[in-house]
């Protein structure tokens, strides 16, 4: 019970990521993508890296509540969060998403690897799953990815 109270308290203190009123799309200035930095592939004049179809596990919950998204660290994968994701979904009634980052777990592998492109992968996935707004929780590499996404998608409070 105490863990559930702590989690509820943490959620009340977070700002959720919200869709712009005009929706998503390249015409929307509030959804403008931050340019992707040169990737680890060496930037040999190739086209800008595209988001990959990430592997994920989505636990069902109340759609009216912002979902919680767990992002693993550099040597991890989505299964690192199985226990906490299940407990979180049960205790809070929220949808909970665990994701394998590109080049990790069951997600596709690509020579393009940067925090910017990992953020773009999530910016592609989350709206497709109907998980905007959401609360992001990341460990190490996942935390840095979550922080970059928050900077790219930050909006002033209503």
Largest sheet: 4 strands, mixed
The number of strands is 4
Q: H/E element string?
A: HEEHEHEH
Mean pLDDT metric: 81
What is the quaternary state of this protein? single chain
Helix/strand/pairing category? alpha/beta
Q: What is the CA-atom radius of gyration, in angstroms? A: 16 Å
Termini distance? 32 Å
**Low confidence ranges:** 13-43
Percent of residues in helices:
25-40%
Q: How do the strands line up in the largest sheet?
A: 1-3-2-4
Please count the helical segments.
Answer: 4
Estimate what percentage of residues fall within beta strands: 5-15%
The geometry reads as globular
How would you explain this protein's 3D organization?
The protein has 158 residues and is an alpha/beta fold. The chain contains four helices and four strands, in the order αββαβαβα. Strands 1-3-2-4 form a four-stranded mixed sheet. The longest helix is centred in the last third of the chain and has 14 residues, at 115-128. It is globular. The termini are far apart. Its EC number is 3.1.1.116. One of its GO terms (molecular function) is carboxylic ester hydrolase activity. InterPro entries: AB_hydrolase_1, AB_hydrolase_fold. Residues 28-49 are annotated as: Disordered.
Secondary structure elements and pairings:
Blueprint lengths: L1 H11 L43 E4 L7 E5 L10 H11 L3 E4 L15 H14 L5 E5 L2 H13 L5
Parallel strand pairs: 2-3, 2-4
Antiparallel strand pairs: 1-3
Pfam families: Abhydrolase_1
Organism: Piliocolobus tephrosceles
Keywords: Hydrolase
């Amino acid at each position: 019970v105490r863990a559930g109270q702590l989690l509820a308290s943490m959620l009340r203190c977070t700002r959720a990521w919200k869709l712009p009123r005009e929706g998503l799309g390249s015409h929307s200035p509030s959804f403008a993508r931050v340019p992707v930095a040169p990737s680890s592939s060496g930037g040999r004049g190739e086209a800008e890296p595209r988001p990959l179809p990430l592997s994920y596990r989505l636990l069902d919950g109340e759609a009216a509540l912002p979902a919680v998204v767990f992002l693993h660290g550099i040597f991890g994968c989505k299964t690192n969060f199985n226990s906490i994701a299940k407990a979180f979904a049960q205790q809070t009634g929220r949808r909970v998403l665990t994701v394998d980052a590109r080049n990790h777990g069951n997600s596709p592998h690509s020579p393009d690897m940067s925090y910017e492109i990992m953020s773009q992968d999530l910016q592609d996935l989350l709206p497709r799953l109907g998980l905007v707004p959401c609360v992001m929780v990341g460990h190490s590499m996942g935390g840095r990815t979550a922080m970059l996404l928050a900077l790219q998608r930050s909006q002033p409070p209503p």
